[in-house]
Amino acid sequence: xxxxxxxxxxxxxxxxxxxxxxxxxxxxxDIVVATVIEPxxxxxxxAEVFLANTAQIRRxxxxxxxxxxxxxxxxxxxxxQGLLLEGDASTELLALAQGLPNxxxxxxxxxxxxxxxxxxxxxxxxxxLYSGASVLVGRPFHRNxxxxxxxxxxxxxxxxxxIAVDDQEGSKVVLDCLESMPNSVFENLYVxxxxxxxxxxxxxxxxxxxxxxxxxxxxxxxxxxxxxxRLARCAQTASGISGIGCPSQEIARIAAEKDVDLVxxxxxxxxxxxxxxxxxxxxxxxxxxxxxxxxxxxxxLFAA
Length: 304
Description:
Number of domains: 1
Strand content: 15-25%
């Protein structure tokens, strides 16, 4: 597996990097720790000396950061190298991914600012949309301050994980991928299946929806129970949870209720345009989940 760890010095980036340490990486894993220095946007001639000095300082700080992170992985026995890029962050990272050998690729990055990501696209959102790779997005835990999220991850011996399943191809990828992991790699595994259901106006007669919701809930029950049984060996305990509603909202709610360490979802099959306009479950979770999110695109990502 080829890991591209996008480091920018943010807490979200540190959370993603710490979560990567807890995943069962294949022995063939190589890590590239990359950071991108973006232009300052100052063009006045009198600022040339200031810009030159500032750029040198930024490069020095960035180089120290990526060399430190790469060195920590090397100390763990994982081949790693630091790479300093300049330009637009998402453009440079996507170009870097396209230039890699044909291997299973995992992007690791922070979540960015939710208020902007839904409007103009954060780096993580663009990587999810356009890279074609699996993406691990660092997000702070809802029950911990930002600064407490990294210590929480590092203190865990094994993770509590929620995986979302439905009848789409992305869920098959998730199930196949987790089946390739070692026995009892997780502490608690919650398999969640949410049947989508439209918003019901407050003044509606709920009785007319009952026959449909009963059938949908039975379907979700079966799906969650079957998947939990299939993945039972991957965790010390595995249980199925079902429901009806908006999938991203319900998954986020259950993740917060169970206080899980990681949410795992398959990549939704939306076009880039439709995802930008209306979003999808995986994109919405990457922006608003109460914990880090792993979006899987390959069933062989963690295969030995």
